[in-house]
Amino acid sequence: MTLTEEIVYAVTRNFPIGILGVVVYAAVSYKLSDLWGSLLANYFGFT
Known about the structure:
The protein is mainly α. 87% of the residues lie in helices and 0% in strands. The two termini are 29 Å apart.
């Protein structure tokens, strides 16, 4: 997630916006893992 902050900071030159980008990235990532986790576990036979 640090790479996300670095990219946002390089584009905006604003550190708080970079941190906000990391928070948004983490929230989306965690939500997608909740949505797709059981489907992928069943597909690969982990359950």
